[in-house]
Amino acid sequence: MKPILEVEHITKEFLIGGEQERYLALRDVLSNPFKKLRQPPKQQFKALDDVSFTVMPGDSVGIIGRNGAGKSTLLKILSHITPPSSGRIICRGRTASLLEVGTGFHQELTGRENIYMNGSILGMRRAEINKHFNAIVEFSGVEKFLDTPLKRYSSGMQLRLAFAVAAHLEPEILIVDEVLAVGDSEFQKKCLGKMNEVSKSGRTVLFVSHHMGTIAQLCRKVLVLNKGRVLNYANDAMAGIEQYLKLNKSIASFENERTGKNMVSPQKITLSNAGGEQVDEFTNKDEIVIDFDLEFTELPANTSLFVSVLNQYKMPVFSEEKGITGSRMRLRIMPEFLVQGSYSLVVIIHQVPNEQYFKVEDVCQFNIIDTDSKMIIYNNYNYNYGNVFGKSSWE
Fold it and tell me: What is the CATH number of domain 61-81+91-244?
């Protein structure tokens, strides 16, 4: 059986501007017509660098990586929205893409007209669209507004209609870029169920998400991107997820982050144990020490450091906040609090109530290893014990 998709040595380069200089206004030109505007030097940036992989019919592939890894650029190339700088793609099936809300829709046309137009773009005949029309409308839940121009729809309504069209018109390859985050929880469940149904029917799904729980639930394979290159293409989704989580480090440096509005920012965030060793692995009986080295010229009043601990699915487990009084702060997480698993940090520095100076997500990844609790004893049963040991008692 031939692959339905072959990606061979894809590279995508962009030109980015250098240091900006003052532009010339009309009065500058009139006062000195011989003065020329010197263009800032351009630099080449590789969003993708020699990316190769194959996808077999019926595969469900999760594409994961940190922000800026090249995920969305790859999907745009696979969807023929933008061409690669080099390399080639061999596609042996009809592709439907859902990259942004309203992609491929016309705001002035009604919902009904957009269904037919989008179906035609996907290569469907009118008879084929008619066959699935009622299912599309029912799934999207926009019956009352079917003959209303799309510009009157909310973003959620546009999302539901766009997903319904893409999923029901039987593409061989369905490409989805985390648009599910826009919908409510009930619609997200419907989307995941439909994508699962599409995959089980023998069609192919490529799915980008930062939610590792969804990737683990939906995808059998995982493509891990890092700085535009393929770090791993794992046949085991959990193995790929674990490698992605290891991209985070126990020390995060932000020496070049403080610009303009960032009046207060960290230079470094460090994880260590109670003995002062910089580590990224702890037992459940270890104290976890998080040190923040802060930089500021003048500390604004009411400035706070907010820290949230995320679990392996990037959901918050607990948060702490403390007013900043100096350039070094320390947060201690007590022993026997976090259960076995992978965690990372969200760090925000803000001035109460509404001024934010700094924010970084998913940094300082660390692991908790359980050595002797009931989680080890019953591990073969795959019980989910949550993320924290409860403070409770039986009577």
Answer: 3.40.50.300
